[in-house]
Amino acid sequence: MAWEDEIVGPDVASAGLHISERIGKDVAAQLDLDEALEASRYASHPYSSFPKEWPPLVEVVETRELPSLLIERYNASGGEGTALCGIFSEIRRAWASVDNSLFLWRFDKWDGQCPEYSADEQAICAVGLAKSKSGIFVEAIQYLLVLATPVELILVGVCCTVSGDGSDPYAEISLQPLPEYRIPSDGVTMTCITCTDKGRIFLAGRDGHVYEMQYSTGSGWHKRCRKVCLTTGLGSLLSRWIVPNAFKFGAVDPILDMVVDNERHIIYARTEAMKVQVFDLGENGDGLLTKISEEKNLIDPREAQYGGRRSVGSRAVARGAKPTIVCIAPLSTIESKRLHLVAVLSDGRRLYLSTSSGGTNSSIGGSFQRPSCLKVIATRPSPPLGVGGGLNYGTMSASGRVQPEDLTLKVEAAFHSAGSLVLSDSSASAMSSLLIVNQDSSVQPSLSGNFGMTTRSTRALRELVSSLPIEGRMLTAADVLPLPDTVVTVQSLFSDADAFAGLGEASEKPSGKHWARGDLPTQHILPRRRVVVFSTMGLMEVAFNRPVDILRKLIESNASRSQIEDLFNRFGIGEAAAMCLMLAAKLVYDAGNLSNTVSEKAAEAFEDPRLVGMPQIDGSTGLTSARSPSGGFSMGQVVQEAEPVFSGAYEGLCLCSSRLLFPIWELPVMVVHGNIGRFEEGVILCRLSVDTMKILESKIRSLEQFLRSRRNKRRGLYGYVAGLGDHYGSILYGTGNQGTGRNLFGRQTRNADAGDGGAGSKRQRLVYTSAELAAMEVRAMECLRRLLRRSSEALFLLQLICHHNVTRLVQGLDNSLRQKFIQLTFNQLVCSEEGDLLAIRLITGLVEYYIGPDGKGTVDEISEKLREGCPSYYNESDYKYFLAVECLEKASVTVNAHEREILSRDAFNLLTKVPESADLSTICKRFEDLRFYEAVVRLPLQKAQALDAQGDAVNVNIDPGQRDNTLALREQCYEIIMDALRSLKGVGQNGKPREFGTSRLSTVPSLDQASRDNYIQQIIQLSVQWPDASFHEHLYRTLIDIGLENKLLEYGGSDLVPFLQTAGRKPLQEVHAVNVVNSTALQGSDMRAPIVSGQAKYLDLLARYHVLKRQHLLAAHVLYRLAERPCTDTEEAPTLHQRLQYLSNAIIQAKSASSTTGSISLSRNTVDDSLLDMLEAKLVVLQFQIKIKEQLELIASSLENMPGGNESLPNDFSPRSNLVVEDEIARSAQEKAKELSLELKSITQLYNDYAVPFKLWEVCLEMLNFANYSGDADSKIIRETWARLLDQALSRGGVAEACSVVKRVGSNLCPGDGACFPLETICLHLEKAALERLTSGIELVGDEDVARALFAACKGSAEPVLCSYDQLLNGAILLSSNLKLRLLRSVLVVLREWAMSVLAHKLGTTAVGASFILGGASSREQTAAIGQGVWDKISSLANRYMTEVRRLSLPQNQIEPVYRGFRELEEQIQASTAFQPL
To answer: Domain Nucleoporin Nup133/Nup155-like C-terminal spans what residues (predicted)?
Structure first.
């Protein structure tokens, strides 16, 4: 099956979950050395060895003699000179000194070079090698050789030269004298030198003190090099300078050895008196050296003050000489967090010590606790003698056997590193031997039936012991470190993985520390471990055979089947199968030296069911779980479901896969260098180096290709399943129904479901056939293979990105994507959709760089690399997409407009074939720059359709959350088109102005306003043509938001009206010209629904649309809806004047509808007229509401501004001294005014709830007049209202104010029927008030004031006024004589006004002019024009009222003026009519 045809997503995701679970289990299973030692106390076999028939665990690779020059020099000194030796693993050199000469030579091969350095005339007493600090010496000096003589300390530069082919970085070395870096030793003889990984140099003196040799470039008075004593006070310092050494008789305990823990930044020292000292260098290793502790008697088992766990073997040591400490070595964090130091004793025992005062973990929050003490935590018994014949498993602890004194180890020298121990034993008199102890990775068989003992036994530390004879005496030993390339690879892989696994901080560690992980987890990436032993007879290089090396040698030697089976039994089927797989797929470090024969035989063993087994049902749990501990059957226990257990081949594949992926799986693929807190300011780089990813990719591909070839050749279970038929083949390829609840990955992933079901329920055991089990295992292996393929492709993609500057590619992403990219783990990159999307974005940036102006390739070139290396991340749709991008790049640099159009069209045609693959956020911006807006519209819409092919965004029957998510995906596509409109309009996302959409391309001209309008029109028209209701709604809203309402109304689609109705919460049905509309329908419940300002703009647009389309009746309805809309917030509510404008416009539209009906039916005209009447009535009521609101606001402001309560209030509010009452009135007026601003009120509400409570009698009268009040009851209300209004005016301004009110109000009312303007009542009320106020002297009231006011209120009509006076004079009401005289004076005024108005009207002059005519000699022509009937009536009335005056029983002086007035009026009229012809 081709890769492209495979189901990648689900298979890779399920396999990824299994790998994550496997890695988590492996991390959890890693034991701390402290835990393993604790469990060892109960183990019966702490030491063992491999069978004799197996290849040796340790073998001597090569022995080399010492350089002849060194031997000659030593012999020349007679064997009595000062001679030292050691190994510098960092530069692959051994060294030896004879007196004042130092010799260096290769310990791994003889190259004929042995450079010599002479230190003047003084013998060399100590030698060390330090890293050179940067910035002090030239770059060629990588290391510093530190030499100590009794008189001075010397630094010598070490320059390493790489071989010609680059394979050997230490091919040659040269020593560079540094004369300026020599300082005197001040009489102190140094015993040892140690250096930190940061280049600090520490020296131990024979005087028991520790010194530091500090060096720098030197400036001013600072010396280039100096020696500082770090362990002495001021008094001791003075005594050293004043008192010579010869007179110092105190006991001195010289330091013999110092070692550095570069992870915890601690220095340990071993003294001659067997003391161990602890020095702290600070948290970062650059602090001042501080002495923490000095402990003695560590090796006395009777000392209990340290509280450590002592092995039972420590009490069984044969009595003899007190053992001494021969070696101390720091323990890495990979080995233990609590144990920090191991001390090897001369009897072979090991003491494990800690510098932590308490707790079981010495690290808090990711950083180590600083040392505070030194105490023994555990003691490991010495390894047994006589291991040459193979030490088998026994039932008795080796630590519990008392060894005879002559068989006790006599260790002369020891070396401990990364869990391995090399001892030089001289207990045998004939020849010394090397005892080599390292961790046993094999599986321990259970020898006890006790569960607790079995658990401890599996966790116990078990070690293998090997013995090698050695000529001479071992002096020192050291690890042969891997080559720098391997070191970089291992550090790159495991530095962060250690932090993830809880094994330490993410920091660079020496590669040798990773051997402490054990052979099984590292034998695919680390070379075989080698140790070089420096003896008195020469150098011996010893190699440690790993389990995979043992298997390889067994296969190469054609070992018997029983030996192979023994290896499978000893290491476990899964581990042994994993080793076979590593050999078959050539995953081991030195795979180049692996023959095809060995690989083929290993593959056969991997596929041999007799070795790896067959998948089967694990029925043991189900059968035994129902048994009670006593052997009886328990009915209360649950019979567990039997689960499938896959073969050892599958287990081996899981182990190989998880160990390959462990260093990268759950870790980010990228890191930020620089400003860690702000990723925007840091530099983003790949976490792994390109070379490391290449090596890892190669191994993963090798494993996947092996599995692929195995599948294609139908080997092993593949062939077995393929021969069973189509049904099981469908299980294999994932196309058949595998049954519900069947686990793809067997029992390994069933633990999470172990608690399913209640305790009282019993699950039915599933029954699998052997064929089904085989098919399930092969299916699971196929998923893992696909995961491996996907992982190798991801590594290839990361390498390709790194080759083209990942920082530059990531820079093109926005901050959110950059943040996601930084947090992306390798697991997510391989298995998740988000990782796939981010990979596409990076590929996009890579291709754009390739084909950009600065690029050096084409789409075809980079596509070939991507197809070959990572086809699952790059498919055919991606190829078409990038071809389109290439066309756009060419178009962007094309000057010819026609060619640019063709290239843009080609790109558009390519993208229409793969709309879902296009990165529209950038690709449409390119089309915008090219002014190809068809693509800007079509491509996002096509992608939206592809993302929601089922129409879930508008499906009301699905889950709302799913619908909203789908709609959100669509709207992301829609926004691309909206951004183009905003750019052309010149507004930003938030509506703020921004620069108009100018092209970034110099070849495309800028746009003028007309061009922008044309492009906007094109976008709208193209958008409206697309049949997507959701998009239309999004488009319409955006056009309204950015101010393109006119374009919307002009080019909107057929769904614009429903959209505006829905958006305005106004579900109006469209009214056609021939339909009959009931105007009362507008007053339904929907009319009263609140509308916010955001919705009102849609209704406003709807009204404009109807006006534009000449749909006047619909426009009138919408405008009326806007005017009537209630609101709950004054900020969102329209003002009453705005509502007034809406109603006015609605009336205009209603009148327009009536005038354009033409031949429409009579019923339609009736509807229009009724709507118009209703709107006009609403307009009048709204005017009342505005007037009431203004008066209420005036009342509130007047009361608020009133300083006291003694002044009269507006509208005749009585004076109040209580300010609290005034505040309540003001607050009530404000609240009522606010209510009136929120919605329109009916005339009844306005009258009863607002006008009457606040005594707004004038408005009350106007509303009563508008309501056409009539009848006796209504007339009474009107008369009472007039009385209140007049009293209010009289109290506020007297008769003058009352007359002014009568003029103003009366002119607005209709006095014809007398219902709303009762002249008789008003006249009597005013005349009485005038007489009373005049008589009392309160107010000076003229005789003409009341009469003229009534005459003006009746709009110059004298007859109603005269009629009312006549009724008062001749009515049933008894009037006083003074009041009658007052009334007659007013009648006289009315008659005069009537005569003058009539004359003025007839002559076309004013009333003033008429008075001159009436009182003087008028011409015949003037008087002839006046009707005789009017004059006769006025004259008759004057005559009659003269008689009335005479009847009054008042003094003559009071009635005479009135009488004379009537008479003069009569005479004037008669005189004026005397000239009229008969």
So the answer is: 647-1334
| HEC string for 71-125 | HHHHHHCCCCCCEEEEEEHHHCEEEEEECCEEEEEECCCCCCCCCEEECCCCCCC
Arithmetic mean of pLDDT, 106-127: 87
Mean pLDDT in residue range 138-156: 92
Q: Judge if 330 and 421 occupy the same domain.
A: yes
Q: Same structural domain for residues 1390 and 1315? A: no
Vertex 1260 angle, CA 1256 and 1263, to 5° = 145
* 1414 and 1331, same domain (yes or no): no
| Cα angle value 265/492/846 (rounded, 5°) | 140
- Judge if 1339 and 1392 occupy the same domain: no
Residue 739 neighbours by CB distance under 10 Å: 11
Cα–Cα distances in angstroms (integers) from residue 616 to residues 50, 638, 645, 724, 749, in the given order:
31, 22, 5, 17, 16
For residues 160 and 535, give the distance between their C-alpha atoms in angstroms, rounded to a whole number.
Answer: 26
Percentage with pLDDT > 90 across the chain = 20
Q: Does 739 fall in a domain?
A: no
Q: Are 230 and 269 in contact (CB under 8 A)?
A: no
Residue with tokens 């090099």: 225
Residue 336, Ramachandran bin (φ over 0: left; ψ between -120 and 50: alpha; else beta): beta
Residue 1004: per-residue pLDDT: 63
Share of the chain above pLDDT 70, in %: 77
Q: What pLDDT score was predicted for residue 331? A: 92
DSSP β-bridge partners for residue 277: 269, 294
Q: Which residue has the tokens 């009385």?
A: 1283
Is the CB of residue 516 less than 8 Å from the CB of residue 334? Answer: yes
What order of strands is seen across the sheet that includes strand 255-261? 255-261, 266-271, 276-280, 290-295
Cβ burial, residue 222 (10 Å; 0-12/13-18/19+): exposed
If phi over 0 gives left and psi between -120 and 50 gives alpha, with beta otherwise, what is residue 264? alpha
Structure tokens at 1039: 């056009």
pLDDT tier for residue 1058 given thresholds of 50, 70 and 90: confident
Residues 6+ apart with CB under 8 A from 219: none
Identify the CA nearest to 1345 among candidates 1384, 1296, 1379.
Answer: 1296
